[in-house]
């Protein structure tokens, strides 16, 4: 076996465990990937005022956030309401943790646990710079009406 093949195999063996532990970002296309919103108590468009991410881990997961509701699609929140939340404690199943940019505007699907707003890594928060952002909102509104 030549030297190049040995080095290639060694690198493959060394990095395979790290690659297998990598998380997967949600692939969002023209159609929002969810159609059932029953498990979410609140669906809002909100501006993130503060977001805190952990530096302890490579993926820098969200620890908490503060936001202002711009529009409420589902639930009893109103425009202008201030909310605080945190990520839901759940098994990651190779799905990347949530990242929310300060001053970013997001479509958020939230639940409430013990009087605290929680966001699931599986709820697919979408920032308003996504080219399908408005389409997703229209799709969600249509799906909620038919629930």
Short description:
This protein has helices at 3-20, 133-145, and strands spanning 42-53, 62-74, 82-87, 105-113, 116-119, 126-127. The chain is an alpha+beta fold.
Description:
The protein is of the alpha+beta class. 21% of the residues lie in helices and 31% in strands. It is built from two helices and six strands; from the N terminus they run H-E-E-E-E-E-E-H. The protein has helices spanning 3-20, 133-145; strands at residues 42-53, 62-74, 82-87, 105-113, 116-119, 126-127. Strands 1-2-3-5-4 form a five-stranded mixed β-barrel. Strand 4 (105-113) and strand 5 form a beta hairpin. The longest helix is centred in the first third of the chain and has 18 residues, at 3-20. The protein is globular. 17% of the residues are buried.
């Amino acid at each position: 076996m030549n030297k190049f093949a040995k080095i290639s195999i060694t690198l493959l063996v060394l990095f395979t465990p790290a690659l297998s532990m990598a998380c997967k970002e949600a692939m969002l296309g023209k159609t929002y990937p969810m159609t059932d919103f029953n498990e979410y108590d609140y669906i809002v468009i909100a501006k993130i005022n503060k977001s805190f991410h952990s530096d302890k881990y490579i993926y820098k997961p969200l620890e908490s956030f503060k936001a202002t509701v711009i529009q409420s699609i589902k639930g009893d929140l109103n425009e202008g309401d201030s909310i605080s939340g945190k990520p839901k404690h759940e098994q990651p199943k190779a799905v990347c943790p949530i990242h929310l940019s300060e001053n970013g505007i997001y479509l958020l699907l939230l639940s409430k646990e013990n009087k605290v707003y929680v966001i699931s890594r599986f709820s697919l928060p979408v920032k308003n710079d996504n080219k399908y952002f408005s389409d997703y909102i229209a799709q969600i509104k249509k799906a909620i009406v038919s629930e």
